[in-house]
Amino acid sequence: MKIKHLPFDQSVNGWSAIIGDRLDYPQQQGKTTADWLIIGAGYAGTAFAQRLAEQRPDEHIVLLDAGEIGDNASGRNSGFVIDLPHNIGTSTAELEKAAAYRRLLQFGVAHLQEQVARHGINCDWSSAGKYHCAVSPKFNGLIDAYVRELNNLGEAYQVVEKDELARRLGTHFYHRAVYTPNCILLNPAALMQGLVAYLPSNVTVYANSPALSIDAGARIRVETPHGEIRARRLMMAINGAARGLPLFKGRLFAIATFATLTEPLNAQQLQRIGDMADWGVTPVNALAGATLRYTRDRRFLIREQVNFTPGLTTGALETGRHARRHAAIFARIFPQLKDVAMAHTWSGLISVTRNGAPIWGQLADNVYAAAGCNGSGLSKQTAAGRILADFALGEDNPLIGDMQSLGQANYLPPRPLLDIGVQGYLARERWRARSER
């Protein structure tokens, strides 16, 4: 199996830029042998490696990543560690699935929290919660529906109206929100680097070492630019890059989202919005609205725009266009802060499946995968990777049943039909939710 497309982004990840120095990991060179090879050092791959190393301390595990640790999709997101499913439903079957999904997300949150506390990972971990916001009154129905779903799950929440919302967020831009208290906010690049740094000693990490071809025969063989790795078993956590591989049967595709991080606010700028704690906002329509954060170090994050990205590549011109767009959006939300400078704009990839189900489990006799995250990857993929390790080792874990209850990703049409369908859907959602921009 040849890897046709590798993730490439010409922009600087703002989360990485503001944390300064990082640990350096070598490139894979020459011939390497291992008991297990894991491709993809994101949340799923790292969680799988950690659990595997704990359960099999005498086995050699190789964790391979195409780029810098913490600088691919795992470190380029908005830094929300989500604890609740976005879509809950009302039927018995939907509620049972939502309850399973909630158990998985909260398992992922709890594991990450334990790792951050145990190792003292400095990632600005904040139990700030999340505001799910509507800009226009026409989307009150979506807010009300979410409230009913949270009631069905028995979850705590607050409905926050316009004036109180303005006091908490420092802007009158939003009309109404549902606040849920248990979402975590953090710097995802710092978290990812910390998780990899504290992996057990029987895990060898290689960075900047993309897998160029994969031979998944009786014994695994993977080529890299400077060598090869042979292993008894393979776990793939490569998400969007997996579409072209036969084992994944075209069941996922990649989209790119774009984010901008501002410079920290100075004393004069802070006076205009008042003293407030850090917060995070998600839009009622994730494809059309803007995700926003106010961080502990007094920066704003703006994430907006979703592009179909079959080639996994984002160029500097495209990123620059979105930087200007984000500056205009920020000026609409905070007109009193038009003098705040934009520091970094970048993109990150999300793998998407047609029915929202993951690609998870055993793909061949000695091949396993956790892909198709559909967003919310920090908690979701942490759970998926750690539980998959137990599944692969034959360990008893009740959450294996919860993972399997999510189903499997279904068939996607070939290109160019896929391109037409995805781009048409994105255009429709942007039009429907144009008042949220």
From TrEMBL:
Q: Which GO terms describe its cellular component?
A: cytoplasm
State a single Gene Ontology molecular function: oxidoreductase activity
Q: Give the record's keywords alphabetically.
A: Oxidoreductase
**Segments forming a coiled coil:** none
Q: Which residues form the FAD dependent oxidoreductase domain?
A: 35-390
Q: Tell me, what's a Pfam family for it?
A: DAO
Give the matching InterPro entries. Answer: FAD-dep_OxRdtase, FAD/NAD-bd_sf
PANTHER family per record: FAD DEPENDENT OXIDOREDUCTASE DOMAIN-CONTAINING PROTEIN (PTHR13847:SF281), SARCOSINE DEHYDROGENASE-RELATED (PTHR13847)
- Mind telling me what this protein is named? FAD-dependent oxidoreductase
